[in-house]
Amino acid sequence: MNPQKRVCARCIMDTTIPGIRFDSQGVCNFCQEFEREAAHVISPDPAEQSAKLDALVAEVKALGKGKRYDCIVGVSGGVDSSWVLVKAVQLGLRPLAVHMDNGWNSELAQNNIANLVRGLGVDLYTHVIDWQEYRGLMQAFFDADVIDVELLYDNAMYAVNFRSAARHRLRHMLSGLNRATEGMHMPPEWVWNKFDRKNIVSIARRGRVKIKTFPAIGTVAAGWYSLWHKIRLVWFLDLMPFRKSEALAYLQEHCGYKPYPYKHYESVFTRFYQGYILPRKFGVDKRVVHLSSLVMSGDMSRSHALELMGGIAYPSQQALEDDIAYFLKKMRWTRADLDAYIARPRKSHDQYGSEVALFGVAQRLFRAIK
């Protein structure tokens, strides 16, 4: 570990994190924010939490009466979304599993999803994005040197889930987002607004890519789905006791599930992006945030988290080299292209067109209406 790097006394967030501060006890501001915002989920009143879950399940069933499905569950193949699907079925709901395929699914993720839906008897809708168009959009993002290349996947995933809910006249999208594994705030410098359609279109136009099939969604459309169609994104796992390690053990034993080395590594590109591109080009290692969330929720010891941070963000150097070769072939790059990309300085998303200001206004308006 870098001797000049200061690490939080409670989690493993450190001075590589923009905006980090420490109190007199050496505890960081991210820990303090986590405790303020997630305490009611991590250490809930059992009766109150159970009542909220029962009320939601009753509402979903009532609004879904007479329909083929009563809710949407977006599945990536990761533990969190897989557990949402399992719990939804166990609670008597009739979910439609929705998956967004951008051409980067790992074979393991495909097998995990197939085993899960088959074992649960759930219908699966997979939206496949045209690969040539998606590759062109990725290339435009690489050429723009912005940090959040995954904005493309995340935006399309939201679009596909909203569209599926509207198509089937459903009001609830049950999400794997949760405070137990994602309660620690991601530094805003590391990500971008996932509903910034204008940013995607602007970067695509700069790269001379025509958006024809990519299911982009912007602030106005998201508001329309929420207010007109009354579609809710529900952090389902926050309504029940949730420990990732226990969920993983169940999935392995009962659903033929095989784990990934780190969070979000069900996608070949995501693991290459988080394990190689972010650390090398942007000096960012998202493992520190993901693991800190598990430490704060009591699902992992601090010593184990620090141990995991000690090596590269890959199971082995050979696995990294294999992913580099796969990425170069799929993107039609040479190693020199990759090295040149890594060496170029970062540019901010807001150097290009953006609807961040509009999104802020929409958030305030939505809160006022609610």
Looking at CATH, the homologous superfamily is HUPs
Tell me the span between the first and last alpha carbons.
47 Å
Strand content: 5-15%
**How many strands, which pairing sense, and closed or not: the largest β-sheet?**
5 strands, parallel
Would you mind describing this structure in some detail?
There is one protein chain. This protein has 370 residues and is of the alpha/beta class. The protein has a single domain, classed as HUPs (Rossmann fold, 3-Layer(aba) Sandwich). The protein has 16 helices and five strands. A five-stranded parallel β-sheet has the order 3-2-1-4-5, with helices on both faces. Helix 4 links the parallel strand 2 and strand 3. The model has no long low-confidence stretch (mean pLDDT 93).
Care to give the gist of this entry?
The chain has 370 residues and is of the alpha/beta class.
